[in-house]
Design goal:
This protein is mainly alpha-helical. It is 68% helix and 1% strand. The chain is globular, with a radius of gyration of 26 Å.
Length: 309
């Protein structure tokens, strides 16, 4: 006795289902078109222009990898600007993460008026970046800046914050740490997710506050730290506005950041093809650093519910 397969007709999609599908595509259409036109389109165009000698006022002339070869062989400003950006990124990451984490620990304490303190520390992020840069340029002024006025009031010599190659880059780091309110808020959210039972168990075992911080808080907060480190490195390599408004790359190119170099090549010297090549080199550097950070994260990042780091 053989079984005869039943031939059931394929279910037809209802008109209501097709309508929902079309509505979905219509809703995501503006976002998709925006990505294609304003993100992927310029990326493809810049990849082509990076292989050309394109000076805006003249048609692009294909030269292959000539721009990239010139970058790594004869352009001293390329190495200078990259060195400045890397040194800034390292200082900002170390100091910024420490300050933001300490502020987050203070902002998670159970005291009265904590909401007011959290609002106060978040205020720098709502100030426009241009206004912040102009404000800090006034604060750093050697002759009448409030910071030097305080130093002189306590008997210290004034510092030429933006006019000296020894202090100009660190001045940018201090300003960036001041605007790191988002990092602090992310740390606050991460600290609030740590179970209190772990701290109570550590107290029972005799651990003091410092021991609990390094044995409980830091391991449980490691995914948040990793996220802030990755996004912080990416942001540090895109640093531009304060250097452009406050120092214009000086003194003696001590604040000549990579993005400022790209800006000058593209819009001051009209070397759009060369600037496109620099932009793609920056993209590759950021991607390489991100990959390395993800690779080494398995050694120190602890994810709750996982047996592996």
């Amino acid at each position: 006795m053989t079984a005869i397969p039943a031939n059931f007709p394929a279910p037809k999609r209802r008109r209501h289902s097709w309508r929902k599908t079309i509505e979905g595509y219509l809703f995501i259409g503006p976002v998709v078109l925006g990505l294609i036109i304003w993100t992927f389109g310029p990326m493809i165009a810049s990849a082509y222009y990076s292989l050309t000698d394109y000076r805006i006022v003249q048609p692009p002339e294909f030269i292959g990898f000539g721009n990239y070869i010139e970058l790594f062989t004869t352009d001293r400003l390329f190495i200078q600007s990259l060195s400045v950006t890397v040194r800034y990124g390292l200082m900002f990451m170390v100091l910024g993460q420490i300050v933001s984490l300490l502020l987050a620990v203070l902002l998670t304490q159970k005291v009265r008026g904590m909401a007011i303190f959290r609002t106060f520390f978040y205020m720098p992020i709502i100030v426009p970046y241009v206004a912040s840069a102009l404000l800090w340029r006034y604060l750093y002024n050697k002759d009448f800046g409030p910071i030097n006025a305080v130093l002189q009031a306590i008997g210290l010599d004034p510092i030429n914050w933006l006019g000296s190659p020894e202090s100009s880059l660190f001045s940018m780091v201090i300003m960036s740490v001041w605007t790191g309110a988002v990092t602090t808020i992310i740390y606050v959210a991460g600290l609030q997710q740590i179970p209190e039972d772990l701290h109570d168990a550590a107290k029972i075992d005799g651990a003091n506050a410092v021991q609990r911080f390094f044995a409980v808080t830091i391991p449980m907060l490691s995914p948040t730290i990793f996220f802030n480190v990755v996004t912080g490195f990416i942001g540090s390599f895109q640093f531009f506005v304060p250097a452009f408004l406050m120092t214009d790359g000086g003194p003696i190119k001590s604040t000549y950041f990579y993005n400022l170099n790209i800006y000058e090549k593209a819009f001051r010297w009209l070397e759009m093809g060369y600037a496109s090549a620099m932009a793609w080199v920056l993209f590759i550097i950021i991607m390489a650093i991100t990959v390395v950070l993800f690779r080494v994260s398995n050694r120190w990042v602890y994810y709750e519910g996982s047996n592996e780091r």
